[in-house]
Each structure stands twice: as structure tokens, then as C-alpha cells.
Amino acid sequence: MLLRTIIYLLYLLIYITMTISFADQNDSSKPKKKLKDMKIIILPKTGHRKSEIMFNHLEHIEKYNTECVDCHHKATNKKCATCHLKKDQREIVNLKDAFHQQCHDCHRETSGPKACGRCHIKNE
Length: 124
Known about the structure:
- It is a single chain.
- The protein has helices spanning about 1-25, 55-60, 70, 95-110, 115-120; strands at about 40-45, 55.
- It is mainly alpha-helical.
């Protein structure tokens, strides 16, 4: 129970930090931070029992030399959940399947982690 509380507080701290970071971007007196420079992005739970994923965005860009279009298909930098919802919408797959297709396909072709628990870190 204590560990869950600590993890929850960590997620909350990251959320607040990211919120402040976005608020700072709207301040014209400061240089704007580009989306590609964001370090950690929390990929939300998508309705299954596994935990959300703390995705290291910056590491994927720098260490693996990926381009935005490698993941953000259709050449947009919108959040996946903008188009991919909890359930399939005609030809648009649901968010869980979109994440899994994108991540699994890449991890199969590279040395990325293959086991669920390597990306879905347990909250217990």
C-alpha cells in the first residue's frame, strides 16, 4: 500500500512538472521547448490490467535516432489519443492496439524489450 502511494505521488509529481513545463512554454519571454525535447511521457492505461508506461521520448529520439514520423504516422505530432480512442472507430484501431502495434513492431525489429513487464512497470 505504501509503495502504491509513493508511485502515485511520483506520477503526480511528473504530471505537475509537465504541466508547469507546458505553462512555461506559453510564456513568450522564455525560449519554447520543442515536443521532441520532452524527456518522459506517460502513456495512459488503455483499459487493460497492465499499468501505464513511462515512455522515455528523448532517449528514443537521441539513442535510437528515430524521427517523429517513425511513430507519429501521418506526419503529425498529435497525441495518439487524439485519433485512437478506447474502441475501434471504423478503420481507426483503438488506442491499446495502436500502441501495441507501433511499439511491438519496432521492438521486434530492434533490441527493444519484448516482455510486457519491461515497459509496463508494476505498481505494487
